[in-house]
Amino acid sequence: MATTVRRTSCNLCEAICGVLVTVEDGRVTDIRGDESDPLSRGHICPKAVALRDLQDDPDRLTTPVRRTADGWQEIGWDAAYDLVVSNLTEVQREHGRNAVGVYLGNPNVHSLGALTHLPTMVRQLKTRNRFSATSIDQLPHMLASYLLYGHQLMIAVPDIDRTSYLLMLGANPLASNGSMMTAPGFGRRLKDLQKRGGRVVVIDPRRTETAAVADEHHFVRPGTDAAFLLALIHQVIANGQATTASYVDGLEAVEQAVEPWTPERAAGITGIDADVIRRIADEFATADRAACYGRVGVSTQQFGALCQWAIQVLNIITGNLDRPGGTMFPRPAVNALLGLGRGHVGVWRSRVRGLPEFGGELPVSTMAEEILTPGDGRIHAMVTIAGNPVLSTPNGRKLDEALDTLDFMVAVDPYINETTRHADVILPPAPPLERDHYDVIFHQLAVRNTSRWNDAVLPKPEQARHDWEIFRDLALRLLSRTPMSRRKVLASARLRMSPRRIVDLGLRIGPYRLSLRKLRNSPGGIDLGPLQPALPGALHHKTKRIDLAQRMILDDLPRLAALATGNDGELLLIGRRHLRNNNSWMHNSARLVKGKPRHQLLMNPDDLAKHDLSDGQLVNVSSAAGTVAVEVASSNDMMPGVVSLPHGFGHGRPGSRLSVANQVAGPSANDVTDAEFTDTVAGTSAVNGVPVTVTAC
Ligand SMILES: Nc1nc2c(c(=O)[nH]1)N[C@H]1C(S)=C(S)[C@@H](COP(=O)(O)OP(=O)(O)OC[C@H]3O[C@@H](n4cnc5c(=O)[nH]c(N)nc54)[C@H](O)[C@@H]3O)O[C@H]1N2
Ligand SMILES: Nc1nc2c(c(=O)[nH]1)N[C@H]1C(S)=C(S)[C@@H](COP(=O)(O)OP(=O)(O)OC[C@H]3O[C@@H](n4cnc5c(=O)[nH]c(N)nc54)[C@H](O)[C@@H]3O)O[C@H]1N2
Ligand code: SF4
Ligand SMILES: [Mo]
């Protein structure tokens, strides 16, 4: 028997852990953490072990399929590409170029081939109806970075290995393994922080796994964090503790804007005591090195943009931006900023609801209505790539119905699931262990500068295609629809370069002048050291200055001031993630999802009593958008008035071809979240803080 141990990194979440994969006679028999990885230092979570299930998965498609009256039929790659391009071309000829819509899902940012080849393909479709998971995820981070630092991807990450005070809002890295902050082994890093004498403070409407190990946790009424953050800024300024670097403008305007946001006022809205707010402000301002960080709970809510701006402002005025132990800008070996424009916002608006584009994409909350609403510019065909928006985006039922009305749909996806079951053609890419891996995006967000290249662990079967080959072949066909131009010659040259060649170039022109050859000699990765100060030189504004007084954000303050605080029996719905679930997929990996069921609606026991409900009972959760039935579970970890449901569930719809384990047999949270409920600044979906009622079934 031939046994080898190969190295790669896990691409299932943002932590990019190094793994050792044992292969016996072509089959994976073991996966464990790679101690030699300078970033993950041996850490892995249960998802890495499930990488082998993706490889051996009987549900996974290995050849293109086409939907016919007699069911799914396997077809060849060339026939599939021709079918896709001729149908998309036909729809655009008849209804105009915006008649093709595109949704790009989460796994794209974890695949090298998607990052190198997908943007060029999408560009050839020439449509403004582009959507992605960004607008139900990190858009507010990118908007704040674009406004303050001049580039949508110039993200400041908490320097958690050196900080002495970490203030975390709406993040649960003990379950999620961290996000917009690549910090594998977050639990260990947090313990080290505490051992150094540091303090961790968590603000969350649920006492999460992370809150449980923090030094301090406070419940916050969902959707109101902006008031808390403004009060912290108010307090720091009022105490004369605000300082700004020579390249920072706009403190006076901020001072005026936060003037009315006293700790007392914020307390009434957030539910956090005024004394606690004052103390946290003082501790944060006087800590040796402090970092404020907020994630999904403060991004995908009604004031996401305001929250992410305020977090930056707090870090900046306490002198913590760009200093060790504060929040810092990574300097990766391949500069991801080069691959993406600086960004823009509101250059055009969506047809039906007038929501602003961001970075060339429209908010996903408007996707279903753009398909369903008749008129010029209506979407008649969809392209979904690595996404399951029927489960992942608000009012998924409406989207489910909308996809059924399309003239044509193609999905690049390995599975026939709740979304792709609507497709006419599905193009399945080769799985992660058959791909070369370099993490272009997440080194850009990492708490330490490191670099790592790995060749594919397993060979790709002859008949299989990599995602980048699919994008290349589709794009080349799309390019050939119209006469050649200089621009198109360049695009096709770029498409013909392999990801490995592109990474090699990126490494060579990068700040450390590395190369693929150098990295291949250190397959466990190389350490490039702790994060270094970079401002003002690294700013992308021509002025090399940061202006805190961003009109677009300050103009949103009246909306916060008008926020109703009354709560007449209504409950607010929030989301959650579990270590053993991965967004809307992998629920067919029994090895991953094992354990107790975890789809239940969590509710505080006092609320259960108030609503005459009992633990374990089946209840209806209803919002303006819809109703789901689900078991309720009593939990002291929930803030009174708040209920929690995880997203990514709701499998087993007719036509979906996934085997689903019992542990995940719950409804889709996005059948109750409301596509009309957005952060109006840039249209981010507000899937947290959704008003609902809960009644006995
Ligand atoms: N209510 C609520 N909704 C949420 C969230 C929430 O917190 N609450 N979170 C939001 C967030 S942060 C995100 S990122 C989105 C995620 O939502 P999506 O963008 O839909 O992404 P996933 O759920 O990860 O879906 C993955 C899809 O990609 C396919 N896939 C897996 N691997 C590959 C691959 O390598 N290549 C290709 N081509 N396809 C692949 C899978 O089969 C599946 O169809 O959900 C969002 N939705
Ligand atoms: N195991 C696992 N890991 C994952 C994923 C997964 O599905 N499973 N998904 C990946 C993806 S795509 C992402 S984007 C990241 C997300 O990473 P995180 O943001 O760390 O993940 P969540 O668990 O969604 O944490 C959001 C927290 O916000 C809280 N919250 C909700 N509403 C509010 C509010 O109004 N205010 C405050 N302060 N808190 C609120 C919730 O209770 C929850 O604890 O995780 C990634 N990692
Ligand atoms: S933490 Fe993320 S990258 Fe690390 S093993 Fe788990 S899923 Fe993979
Ligand atoms: Mo996400």
From TrEMBL:
InterPro entries attached to this UniProt entry: Asp_de-COase-like_dom_sf, MoPterin_dinucl-bd_dom, Mopterin_OxRdtase, Mopterin_OxRdtase_4Fe-4S_dom, Prok_Mopterin_Oxidored
Transmembrane segments: none
MF terms in GO: iron-sulfur cluster binding; metal ion binding; molybdopterin cofactor binding; oxidoreductase activity
UniProt-listed PROSITE patterns: 4FE4S_MOW_BIS_MGD
Key word Iron-sulfur present: yes
Domain 4Fe-4S Mo/W bis-MGD-type: 3-59
Keywords from the named record: Iron, Iron-sulfur, Metal-binding
PANTHER family tied to this protein: ASSIMILATORY NITRATE REDUCTASE CATALYTIC SUBUNIT (PTHR43742:SF2), TRIMETHYLAMINE-N-OXIDE REDUCTASE (PTHR43742)
Family statement: Belongs to the prokaryotic molybdopterin-containing oxidoreductase family.
Name of the protein in question: Anaerobic selenocysteine-containing dehydrogenase
